[in-house]
Amino acid sequence: MIKINKGKLKVLNVGLDSFASDITAAGHEAVKVAWRPPLDFDIAILENLNKQSAVISAANDEALARIQKGRPLLVGMGIARDVIPGMHEDLILHAGPPITWERMCGPMRGAIIGALIYEGRAANPEAAESLAASGEIKYAPCHEHNAVGPMAGIISPSMPVFIIQNESFGNFSYATQNEGLGKVLRYGAFSPEVIERLKWMDRVLYPVLNRAIEALGRIDLQSLISQALHMGDEVHNRNRAGTSLLIRQLAPALLKTMQNVEDTTSVLNFINGNDHFFLNLSMPAAKAVLDAARDVPNSSLAVVMCRNGTDFGIQLSGTGNQWFTGPALVPDALYFPGYSKADANPDIGDSAITETAGWGGFAIAAAPAIVQFVGGKAPDALNYTLSMYEICHGENSQYQIPALDFRGTPVGIDVIKVVENNLSPVIDTGVAHKDPGVGQVGAGVVNAPMEPFIKACQALTRIL
Amino acid sequence: MIVKAKIIQGKYLDSVRLMLISQELRKLQEIKDAVAIVANKENRQILADTGMLVPEISSALETDIVIVIKAADETSAQAALIHAEALISEPTKSQTTGMQSYRSIRAAASKRQDLDLCLISVAGKYAAREAAASISEGLHVMIFSDNVSMADELRLKQEALAKGLLMMGPDCGTAIINGCPLGFANHVPAGEIGIVSASGTGLQEVSVAIAHRGMGISQAFGTGGRDGKAEIGGLMLSATLDYLINDPDTKVILMIAKTPDPEVRERLWTQIATTAKPVVVNFLKPLKVPKLPNMFYTHYLDHSAELACRLVQGFSVESIESDTEEEISTPKIGKNRKYIVGLYSGGTLCYEAQQLYYETFGQYPPSNTPIDPACICDDPFHGRSDRFIDLGSDEFTVGRAHPMIDFSLRMKLLEHVSAQPDTAAILIDVVLGYGSHPDPAGEIVPILRSIDPGILVVCNVLGTESDPQNAIKQVQILESARASVFTSHHTAASYALRALQSHRRML
Amino acid sequence: MPHPSVLPEDRGLGLSLTLLSRGDQIPPGFYNRIHSTFKHAVNFHCDSHLIALCTPEICPGPWRMVIDYEMLERVQSIELKIDQMIIDREIIKLRDCPVYTTPVFKPVRDTAIPDQNLRLCKARFTQDATPECVWALAHAEDMDFGSFKGRLASAYKLGYSLFREHHVVQAITCFKGKGYGLTPGGDDFLIGMVLGFTWLGRVQKKELSEILHLLLNASWSDNLLVYTFFLQARNLWVDQNWKDFLTGLEAPSQAPVSAMGKIMQQGASSGYDILSGFFFAWELI
Lengths: 464, 507, 285
Fold this sequence. Notes:
The complex is a heterotrimer of chains A (464), B (507) and C (285). Chain A is α+β, with helices and mostly antiparallel strands and 464 residues long. Helix content of chain A is 39%, strand content 20%. Chain A contains 16 helices and 17 strands. In chain A, the strands form 6 sheets. Chain A has a 4-stranded antiparallel sheet. A 4-stranded antiparallel sheet of chain A has the order 11-10-9-13, sandwiched between helices. In chain A, strands 12-17-16 form a 3-stranded antiparallel sheet, with no helix packed on it. The two termini of chain A are 35 Å apart. Chain B has 3 domains: 2-88, Alpha-Beta Plaits; 105-313, 3-Layer(aba) Sandwich (Rossmann fold); 339-506, Succinyl-CoA synthetase domains (Rossmann fold). Helix content of chain B is 37%, strand content 19%. In chain B, the strands form 5 sheets. Chain B has a 5-stranded parallel sheet with strand order 11-10-12-13-14, sandwiched between helices. In chain B, strand 6 (140-143), helix 6 and strand 7 form a beta-alpha-beta unit. Chain B is globular. Chain C has a 6-stranded mixed sheet, covered by helices on one side. In chain C, strands 2-7-8-9 form a 4-stranded antiparallel sheet, with no helix packed on it. Chain C folds into 2 domains: 19-100, no CATH class; 112-284, no CATH class. Chain C has helices at 112-128, 134-138, 148-164, 168-175, 185-200, 206-217, 224-235, 240-249, 257-264, 270-284, and strands at 19-23, 29-31, 34-37, 41-46, 49-54, 64-67, 78-80, 84-87, 90-93, 99-100. Chain C has 285 residues and is an alpha+beta fold. At the A-B interface, strand 1, helix 1, strand 2, helix 2 and helix 13 of A face helix 3, strand 4, helix 4, strand 5 and helix 5 of B.
């Protein structure tokens, strides 16, 4: 028996706008769907997944709960070979999904060359390059070793790393110390200055910070990140507040554990001059939170989004260690004077882990100031965040956005919703020059490519 | 103190907005002053006096508006400017402002549990999926789109009915539910007649005819054009008939469709036999139907409305006649003219016209949607014969909007046909209501005025006084262009055909 | 049935447009030189002034066409013919469109009734005046002289006293071109004075006719919006709200407070500013 509610009709209009206005003109209520055609691929896949929506939704609830429960703490520092699981002398970790030397982009190769020189494995760039290509050196994604790295994201055995622990679940994550801007390793530079600086970081930065962190015991990164979001950061492209809060926390301990004034001063100056210092803590914090949500069977939530300058890769909670990749895109960003899209390297770095955790581009409503620097207008900031709620499973009230009346950031990227809505996650990113060692040439808010998400959906159908 | 300024170019705001922006900015932390003013020399002097005349302003024209901010520090000034930008570039209103908008059906349904129905008019390729999503969210569905497969239609209707939901369509152009116009619909009063129709224009014509008789409708359901086929089995025809049979607000039921397949008809007769409620049935063609005490059959749209109205009022339903059956003595058609051409936007009206032609001349006329398949009209533009053209048919709507909205093709044909020396009469339907052209009469009158007076131009205006276009005004406008205007298609077509008949007898 | 994937081409405007009023001082013609576009109005050049196509928020006037259409920023041109108006490509019939008749005011003879009404209206005006308007700023205490607002307020204050002492030329410079809004508040104030003097028409005193003379000769044409209002003021070609207000001032029954209220709603402070000038003219006479 057909049942129709009495009273004014409430109509959802999908299509011609004029129908909606007519309904309103006639005194009833119309609500619109800003409809976009779904992707042109096998609709049957989506239909299959829709049939399993109850199972998937329950799994996503579980995965989301784990993300929301995450509590990342900075608990110490160590040398990569000693603390990163699976690290060995011939292993170099890189950003993004797995990739061979042959396919690596300029900045990543440059960074590897620099790392090999830094490690003392090669005396000069040419030797380093042939060593890198020889097959003797093994490459693996940072992500497969509980680590993350911005831009080229190179971690070699001797590098000091931060150790982050997710207190609620006990898992760890790792990242190196941020070198600063300009000609740095992560943009593929390998000049003597770069190596010098890396050595200084080993010699001075690391021990000074390490002692301070030991004295404190731990630093609550969740607290710092929540505060930073209230202060105009989105902890991907803008980390100024986070860096300031970090120094504030460290300052007493730095003084207490000071061994000599020059070193401590140079450390403070270094951090002070690098607004992105906090990025290398927000990234592993995100990693630690998301890793705890891995391996929930049937879950369609993304736990990794990353790029290596050639490919864009994602991993889902419900599909184990499988990578789903597609070509990394050259961002349509705001380029610094003198540069254009022609100079840009395709999207690179593990920093998209911040978006995966619901920060970065997802929280950009908290950082309207950054939008100007990526070529947008302030309302764009709100709209980016607002649109992300449509592809996420939930919200994280630990991280609130003042401009949205303290609504929690959208979190739990559901690849099915991404494909259904033909809307991929926004990533607020810096753009590297395609030649190694030049540095950043622009910044922008870009959409991730759809291909990895489509592949992920296809994989999900097979296992469900 | 940091002072920053922004010249607003090309973005004109009203003064209230400017004032609000200034007030908003002054509320920000660390902002000492914020003004929005015309950058003429007098105001610049004041800015200079208060230390706010920054170099950015020098490039402003005397007539530009400039926002000037004085802040405690660089960051606050910068943030204030960005905030000002945001306030300035608020998107402009559209006709559907204030209407909530969601990215998807599921998103809408999860936020709005009170939604009743989903009206889908996206491309047919995607319509089925959207309909399925709606049904799974518990919404009634109306698919305006065509190009949905028969298999999808069957499946969707089955799923909907299993949940007690309507699935009207595909290719359903009209419905009125709880008085709400959906698609192309007219403004008709509420009343006691319930309509089920597989034809959009058919529904429009009878609903309007009912309104003209001072009566009204309870609900008007569209079923989509294919519902009566054996493959679909008349699922919606039956289900909505069932609804109206059990609806206390409906006293009389009116069902319109192109003749359903035999087994569907059988089921409908059985259903009608289970109730005492009067049911007027119109399958657009003369048909032998079983004698049921509560069932009344006619194949004329106008008569079906008349029957329904009489049944509501308890009047006699005997001898329903067409009005004006007498001969037309002076048909006002030029001497050597021969042919009648119908240019229709409503498919069912075109069908009814062909039926009336058959009853006048004993054979069916050529048409691009002919009742008699042998009478296919290949070339409506250049044909030398009587012809009735349905401009809503697929071959005409590719690359164009529906002829009820976009008149360009009809006007072209009208001009062309009226220029032909052997055109004797032209029949045009002018369909009003929600969704249709805002002023159809105004649109075609310029051409009508230039038509040779030897051509008989007959229009039916399908609409009511309370339609957005106001039928009474539309009739007046058309009459002023010397067209013969009627508010019933049956009357209009009959009149044109009898005039032609008289004219031919005189030749 | 239609292929809804093919949407109707943009026909320019939308459903059922109605022209709600047209001013009787607009000559037929084709206007496509746009001066400015606002949320509520599109202004076209017409001779030395402007004519406007506006939404119903703005009242009818001799140089206005009021239409119920929101997307004015899309309008590129209007053509006014005897029986129809064409906005871009959309034809609107003018048959039933009300025409706004520009009022003709005879000089005020008996001043008792207008005086009483003006007294009541002015009292009400000072109660309701927005703090940003000229009158309020000129009468404000404790303004921070270092701020733009404070500077403006002191200019207005000075202007008031200069007018009272008949130092007209300097007084005018205290107002001309200064102030907030699309039409600077000071200009609106002076327009109000012109309106006041012209309507009150009792410029017997020689020194007061000089004020009007100097006002009329101040440079008005820089800002066309201001100039258009100025022309209307000096010729008393007022719009509906002012028409209601002024005729109401001559009526014995009740002070036209609600008509004044409508004027006060004009713009952010434009209406208040013009009234400030109007009442000041009355004070000076």
